[in-house]
Design goal:
The protein is α/β, with parallel strands linked by helices. The protein has two domains: 150 residues, Aspartate Aminotransferase, domain 1; 256 residues, Aspartate Aminotransferase, domain 2 (3-Layer(aba) Sandwich), CATH 3.40.640.10. It is 41% helix and 16% strand. It contains 15 helices and 17 strands. It has a seven-stranded mixed β-sheet, with helices on both faces. A four-stranded antiparallel β-sheet has the order 13-14-17-16. It has a two-stranded antiparallel ribbon with strand order 1-2. It is globular and about 75 Å long. The structure holds pyridoxal-5'-phosphate. Pyridoxal-5'-phosphate (PLP) binds next to helix 5.
Length: 418
Amino acid sequence: MWNDHVMTNAAFDLAAIRAQFPFLDVAVHGRPVAYLDNGASTQKPRAVIARMAEFAAHEYANVHRGIHELSERATAAYEAARTRAAAFLGAPEPESIVFTRGTTEAINLVVNSWGEANVRSGDTILLTEMEHHSNLVPWLELARRKGARVAYVPVTEGGAALDLEAAHRLLAERPRIFAFAHVSNTLGVVSPARELCAEARKHGVVTLLDGAQGAGHLPVDVSDLGCDFYACSGHKMCGPTGIGLLYGRAEILKAMAPWQCGGEMVERVTYDGATFRKPPTRFEAGTPPIIEAAGLHAAMDFLDAAGLAGLAEHCETLGGRAAAALREIEGVRVFGPEGRRAGLVTFHAADVHAHDLAFFANERGVALRAGHHCAQPLMRKLGASSSCRMSFYLYNTEEELDRGVAAVREAIAFFTRS
Ligand SMILES: Cc1ncc(COP(=O)(O)O)c(C=O)c1O
């Protein structure tokens, strides 16, 4: 059971995991930092930091175009990271993994290559109301250029879930694509992705999963999910910034035109034109994130060793407990599901601005996020122009959660005293 973690999650060794994270030595305002902003980015374990330093020190060169030994070694490491990413995401072959700068760039790649060629005037692009701006604005811009329409699967009252009846009805209308968050960064809703992808496939609808809060947070198997595209970011799963992954089904990637052009991705170039290499290289113009690929490789090894099922259970337990504790505070409204949720909680305090809450918590060494969480339309729908978010990852403890909740309680008492 997700909420019985203390009893059932014995294989997940929190103390051993925490020993791997040097950031836990950091003090903020005289207190050990309680880092509860993992939805924005996650901290790095020693293995990732050490691998990147070692690679930069002794193994570095540019990839693919060198005949010399160091370039060959760097290329082997870069391609090994791709093979590792394919295994990590359950992709059938390494060629279906494109390295990008992150989730945002992965989605923009799909929009500007697949979308440019396949979305026409009068078509519908189906999203959900809980999308991050990264999986919303690129589609809005494409729709504007093409004269297409954007439709949304609604969220139910208070952002508790996706309205699945509406999703099935909207999919039956055969949109060109259904692009949706695997896990919502604002609500903590975990989409029934497998069921939705199966329904989309039944109607011939292409699917893209925004996995920024999915990969590295729960076991992901794109073959089992049955999606056409899956996008995620290295920095949200213990890896470095500047690198992300796009999984694309091989037949779809093969039919897609490049979206950025330059070195590496070409076969033959004349003064009159160029021919392009096969995927994934076709989509990796210019020097790629090489040191970052080595770091991401180490991050995936680390996460698999820690155990993704146990990690997910741990984070979901913290998310559930934080939601329950925050609901008990007078004047606090918690968004998202009542029951099972991902390891994050967004909430709104009636009489205290979210920035005041986050500022107050920071003074106590607690890192929270305040704002609209890159989901402005959703926050408007929920009736909260700004809110706070507590988001957990594998190294967080109940004591840190309690410090976060106590800071919120004290802040509300402080700002509302008469
Ligand atoms: C659900 C979701 N999608 C997309 C993104 C964008 O990720 P990145 O900034 O790494 O491209 C985020 C980042 O917070 C996110 O939470």
